[in-house]
Design a protein that fits this description.
By secondary structure, the protein is an alpha/beta fold. It has 11 helices and 12 strands. β1, α1 and β2 form a beta-alpha-beta unit.
């Protein structure tokens, strides 16, 4: 099969090599400055890239800014409409973190859009890579050992399930905040302090590190002002995130975002996860 890889980061570059090694043809677009392996066919347009391809692959996430393809290795920005207008009806497109906007474009064009990021097997690997990348960021952003520090993680999803035990294994005092009573019970059973996200008042004053995974605004100005001097906020949620960054700057609090951690810290593993998820989709589609 010929794959058309459109946009993406280091993960996409490594994915190209994996697909080639499996005997597939690989065409790429919006990856002009990517470290691509020999054997790929660079294309000058989306139409040229999708021509003859059995599967179009978009990155994880497919878009970082509304209306535009996630293409950090490209020399210019590309509208999603530019890409979808080049696709034939009934084309198969595999994308990560599909948004409503992307789904609407696909429906209007009659394109079969599948979200590989929704596959449980992909989420497991991606969450592990994100958790390890998070630790890497924390180590690079702190001047003291993590052991003995207090960490509050907001949200009890796949990433927290991987991250919380790893931070505890480093000797950190870990608390997990969730709106769900069931998730709080799970966190408590795992040995973590369980906090209610809807009632965080007074719970962050002893935190050295706050990691947010919730996609909605949680760390408001009234919560951030409680943090002690030197505290670090790391927001892992998709844009716009769950942190009031303007308030953080006003209060002199270090608040960072860390998008695409798997692609930066473990691109080979991340690329294999994407490949395996795409193969699962192809099997399901009987292609």
């Amino acid at each position: 099969m010929v794959f058309a890889l459109c946009g993406g980061d280091e993960r996409t570059a490594r994915l190209a090599g994996l697909l080639l090694a499996d005997g597939h043809g690989v065409k790429v677009w919006a990856l002009e400055d990517a470290p691509l392996p020999d054997g790929v066919l660079p294309c000058l347009s989306a139409a040229q890239c999708r021509d003859g391809a059995g599967c179009v692959v978009l990155p994880m996430p497919a878009t970082l800014k509304r209306g535009f393809l996630n293409a950090p290795f490209s020399r210019r920005m590309h509208c999603l409409s530019e890409l979808f207008s080049s696709l034939e009806p009934d084309s198969l497109v595999c994308a990560g973190a599909v948004t409503g906007e992307l789904a609407e474009l696909a429906e209007a064009r009659g394109v079969h859009l599948r979200d590989y990021g929704a596959l449980e097997s992909y989420r497991d690997v991606n969450s592990l890579a994100t958790a390890e990348g998070t630790i890497g960021v924390l180590l690079s952003e702190t001047t003291e050992v993590l052991c003995g520090k207090r960490a509050v993680i907001i949200g009890m999803g796949h990433i927290t399930s991987q991250l919380a035990p790893k931070l505890a294994a480093l000797g950190m005092d870990v608390a997990v905040a969730s709106r769900s009573p069931d998730s709080r019970s799970k966190a408590a059973l795992l040995g973590f302090d369980a906090l209610d996200t809807s009632n965080l008042a007074g719970t962050l004053s002893d935190a050295d590190i706050v990691v947010n995974t919730a996609p909605s605004l949680v760390l408001t100005a009234s919560r951030l002002v409680e943090l002690k001097p030197g505290a670090l906020v790391l927001d892992l949620a998709s844009k716009p995130g769950g942190t009031d960054f303007d308030a953080a700057r006003a209060f002199g609090i270090r608040a960072l975002t860390a998008p695409g951690l798997p692609g930066k810290w473990s691109p080979d593993t991340a690329a294999m996860a994407v490949r395996d998820a795409i193969y699962a989709i192809l099997e399901d589609e009987k292609l």
